[in-house]
């Protein structure tokens, strides 16, 4: 498994993937942070689905981590695309047969790949946190939002909790991408289905059907990133979303183990 | 005592839906030999290779690779190098990085990569991205990847595809050298003249069935040799056919020559009989049946 992980890291480190992914992370974090701070006085709201997050909330110790916590959904889409592409491209390039000749244990291939992509997700979330916090200070200055509480020990704890929760959510979205990659064996199909499901299907249904988001892994991961909501607890969101994902992963891992590699 | 086997396959079959891709195949490949694996497109060559490498599960039957059952590929694959159905690598990585990925996965030393790239003639392009390689260069990288584990068995599927004549010659020399050093080479190719030149064993498939398995020389010995006689005067062609037929040999006119079935012993007799009949022969050449002719005869293609 460690050999596979090391080999996967070689692939993930290539500049065309790593630089473009970090640029995408910087873009989505900047977008969310600028909306959060620069539209703080907007009557249309500055949070998800028009929610207003006021100056008082942004001034709290948790205000420092709100930018990248709120970016989790879009970071998840980036992770979904990376995990799905990295998995499905082995089929489209025909490289899976090379991997399996060099490492016949298909479970080791899968766990090694997942391990490497988790490390990649850690880098993504850490980069998002750095960009989000830096821009939060910049925009707070522009909008006269107090940052006094951001340097307290409570703020450090909030950043740490935020980082862990966003990481759990991002890895969850990535696992969803990996499941789709193994299932559809084509990066384009896996990514498009994943994005349509997450952003359109889950998003629209959750907006119109009350409480249906309790059963959607994408929506629940978003709640995990926020540390839970008044309506859905952190624990429920974490266990339910990961139960879906790990169940799905077990099914596709079984298919991956049993399926003939004929391309 | 029979020589140890690199490969043996017994009653191996693979069925996709109603179609038998490989039907009850039986063959053996001795250790240290170069074995050609030939057959028309769709005859089951790649399916067989994939089963030997643990990529697809046989419907029935089984076999052994380097003495280990094909149901446990992890026991023999570290000693096997393979290129299946052409080279397949990551386009955005360089040749060196692609081999590095495979070396890491297999747990092989990465310090042999540069030497392997030199060996296949890619030393000066090792830092170029795979997507910039020509077909021949991709093929060479595939062969280098197959050599990564310093294999006891090398399985190559159409290794000379896309190579120019000089490249084909280099690969032929390399395979001979590997066989001389004890590596068994199992190579499929549609270039039968190439296979004939390098292989000492042969497995021939047609429509998913093994129609020959054994020494190449045994197969070719079964075929009737031909003597090609070309008279100086074209009007003597029919007379030459009559002479050969009268001596109990089959003869037919092909273009400006008479093709007579018979061993080279008959050449002198035919030459003498033609001279006595007043026919001057421009050339008289004994020709052995080629693998290609034998192949077409056996497969009915």
Which residue ranges of chain A are poorly predicted, with pLDDT under 50 across at least 5 consecutive positions?
none
Shape of chain B: elongated
The fraction of residues assigned to DSSP E strands of chain A is under 5%
- What proportion of the residues of chain A is helical, as a percent range? over 70%
Cα(first) to Cα(last) distance of chain B is 38 Å
Biggest interface goes to:
A-B, 25 and 31 residues
Mean pLDDT of chain A, to the nearest integer, reads 89
Instruction: Note the gap between the termini of chain A.
Output: 24 Å
Quaternary assembly: heterodimer
Overall shape of chain A: it is globular
| Percent of sequence in beta strands of chain B | 25-35%
Look at the helices and sheets of chain A and give the structural class. mainly alpha
Radius of gyration of chain B: 24 Å
Biggest β-sheet strands, sense, barrel of chain B: 6 strands, mixed
Provide the number of structural domains of chain A.
1
* Helix share, percent of chain B: 25-40%
Provide the spatial order of strands within the biggest beta sheet of chain B.
6-7-8-3-9-10
